[in-house]
Design brief:
heterodimer; A: 269 residues; alpha/beta; Rossmann fold; 8-stranded mixed sheet; two-stranded antiparallel sheet; 11 helices; 37% helix; B: 382 residues; 7-stranded mixed sheet; 5-stranded mixed sheet; 19% strand; globular
Chain lengths: 269, 382
């Protein structure tokens, strides 16, 4: 099946700006799904609100475009009520970790089987360039005209601490790596988190002297290094890429099925 | 399930009703005075293969039941005032995306954290207009456990019929008092399942194209049809659209599907209304005091009757106008500052004859409280 067969062409052209990294994330995601040979009708894509969230309309899966920050909560209802479905939950950085931060840590704690993709462009794009919880200190944004003083989250550390059983990071520059990681994340039984650094030349790059899309992509090449690599050991200020957690832990829906099975011998009281 | 007699709390009667109606998914977050609904379903649901999940907050609970409803399950959540406020955005989503679901609100005093363990009926307007934008909503209520059971079954049936959230507005006294409940035998009350599409695999399915009767056949997530669900205004494929015709058409559809069926949704109970000179309009636990007073005064020859509302939204305007016609006075008995009273005034022919008997201090309104107001209206002093 070609990648095009996974798209809803009726819904194109997409609404992302020229140079936006989100199209690359979509491409990587579809190539991962294609690589795994999944049936389109077995996949539910749930998204929140913002630029990133429109991704669910573009794919020919069951798609649920929800409210801001709550994609994981909707996805939990879908997955728990019908565990045979594959849940893909792409979210923007604000979606996943500002308004949706609580749902993020609790989905990780439950270890419910779904794949959360944090499309991290460090800015609120759709509302016009306000800073996000992943912007970090010293960033210019419409709501930080004198530069941000807000610290950012490290998504990988946070997901790990909250209990996600698969945690990884890649960028829109490292497309083949991202496809490979996404395949492993989707295949993983449990809550998997993949952070993908995705450039926003319109609102982040322009204000923060990041240059155009190609400059920003090059910066992902220059400022990141594979986890465990010599480059990272020599220069710890680089952002680590790769798989950080990949563990086998009891999955939520399976554990609940265990309760149902245990009770099935008894009668309803 | 066999017919059996139980001695239960109102919250438990609600659980019995939900199980009778075929609930198979519940997501919730504990909040007084609704918590027993969650506790009992946590125990009962897995026994019949259903799912119970305690989410991290009220918002997540509302979102989770919407997700589960889309896979074809009968779903419910339960909460109280502050939790109900948190659910409002997702409740609006369920209205917009037309997702069948039942939301129980066992009311407590408010605003804010208010009076968690005491009785109030302050969420009548929140049930109607809590979320933003224009939409219709169905809200049912009950004053006794047999009705709690019946209205809960009705709530599932109406949600499935009209593809809409249905709110069950109970109050603390009804939720926590214990009385007899007769659980009917299987089949005694007809159950409704959502209309599912007959469109086959590979044929273009339009999830948001209403049939002539206004109903929209659904397709379960995970089934043959892959479609888009969104809280944005959307066309018949479920794709976002801001085309004025699409926006206008969808909003009219959301309102009309309920407002055009008021006769089928409206529910009430009449007590001693024959020739009543004074009509008490009430609902929930305050209706019990109204009924007590009416019975008592009838025995003494006073013509007092009660119109007990079992549905509040859509507002049963025509029914109230008709039942109150010719009455010397209409007294709305409720435990708030007149949330239903204002609508009764708008409904009746002579609004100046409508009075409010209320109590807002966290205690039940008593027959004596109502009688005192009645004496003033009758010109018999305090």
């Amino acid at each position: 099946m070609s990648v095009k067969d996974y798209l809803r062409e009726r819904f194109f052209p997409h609404m992302w700006c020229p140079g936006c990294g989100h199209g690359t994330v979509l491409n990587s995601l579809l190539r991962a799904v294609e690589g795994l040979g999944l049936d389109k009708s077995d996949i539910v894509m749930t998204s929140g609100i913002g630029c990133s969230a429109r991704i669910s309309g573009y794919v020919d899966f069951h798609s649920l475009h929800t409210i801001h920050g709550r994609a994981l909560a909707f996805a939990t209802g879908v997955k728990f009520s019908k565990p045979e479905l594959k849940l893909l939950v792409p979210m923007g950085d604000g979606d996943a970790l500002a308004i949706g931060g609580n749902h993020f840590i609790h989905a990780a704690r439950r270890n419910i089987d779904m794949t959360a993709i944090v499309m991290n462009n460090r800015i609120y794009g759709m509302t016009g360039g306000q800073f996000s919880p992943l912007s970090g200190v010293g960033i210019k944004a419409t709501t930080a005209p004198y530069l941000t003083i807000d610290n950012d989250f490290d998504v990988v550390k946070m997901a790990t601490a909250a209990g996600a059983s698969f945690v990884a990071r890649s960028t829109t520059y490292h497309v083949l790596e991202a496809v490979d990681i996404l395949k492993k994340a989707i295949d993983h039984k449990g809550f998997s988190v993949v952070e993908i650094l995705s450039q926003c030349p319109t609102h982040f790059g322009r204000k923060n002297k990041g240059g155009d899309a190609s400059n920003m992509l090059e910066s992902y090449k220059a400022n990141t290094a594979k986890t465990g690599s010599k480059a990272l050991a020599e220069n710890p200020s680089l952002i680590a890429r790769g798989i950080f957690v990949d563990e086998d832990r009891p999955e939520y829906c399976e554990s609940y099925d265990g309760i149902i099975k245990r009770l099935s011998g008894g009668t309803e009281s | 399930m066999n017919k059996h007699i139980k001695f239960v709390q109102g919250n438990e009667a609600c659980v019995e009703g939900a199980l009778y109606a075929g609930i198979d998914f519940f997501a919730g977050y504990p909040i007084t005075p609704s918590t027993e609904v969650a506790e009992l379903l946590a125990e009962r649901l897995p026994r019949k293969g259903g799912k119970f999940i305690q989410m991290e907050d009220e918002i997540a609970s509302m979102c989770a039941i919407i997700g589960a409803s889309l896979t074809g399950h009968k779903v419910m959540t339960a909460t109280s005032g502050p939790g109900f406020s948190l659910k409002q955005e997702a409740l609006g989503y369920a209205c917009m995306a037309e997702i069948p679901c039942v939301v129980v609100n066992v009311q407590r005093g408010g605003p804010s954290t208010g009076n968690p363990t005491h009785v109030s009926q302050g969420d009548v307007n929140q049930a109607r207009w809590g979320t933003h934008g224009d939409h219709s909503i169905i809200t049912l209520t009950a004053s006794n456990h047999q009705d709690v059971f019946a209205m809960t079954v009705d709530a599932f049936n109406l949600a499935e019929t009209y593809r809409t959230p249905v709110i069950l507005l109970f109050d603390e006294a009804v939720g926590h008092m214990r009385e007899k409940l007769v659980v009917p035998e299987e089949g005694e009350i007809p159950l409704v399942d959502r209309l599912r599409t007959s469109v086959g695999k590979g044929v273009d399915y339009h999830p948001y194209l209403p049939r002539e009767d206004g109903r929209l056949p659904m397709s379960d997530f995970g089934g043959d049809h892959r479609y888009n669900v969104t809280g944005l205004f959307h066309d018949m494929w479920g794709f976002p659209s801001n085309n004025p015709g699409v926006v206008n058409g969808l909003l009219h559809h959301l309102v009309d599907k309920i407002e055009n069926n008021v006769h089928a949704i409206t529910r009430c109970r009449e007590h001693y209304l024959e020739g009543a000179e004074y009509v008490l309009v009430s609902y929930g636990s305050s209706a019990r005091s109204a009924i007590h007073l009416a019975k008592n005064r009838r025995e003494r020859g006073e013509k007092i009757g009660v119109l007990e509302l079992q549905s509040i939204w859509p507002f049963p305007e025509a029914m109230i106008r008709e039942r109150c016609r010719g009455a010397r006075a209409v007294i709305v008995v409720e435990m708030n500052m007149g949330q239903v009273m204002r609508h009764v005034k708008a409904a009746v022919d002579e609004p100046e004859r409508v009075f409010l008997a209320n109590r807002i201090d966290g205690h039940l309104i008593t027959p004596t409280d109502i009688k005192k107001l009645l004496r003033v209206i009758q010109g018999r002093g305090v």
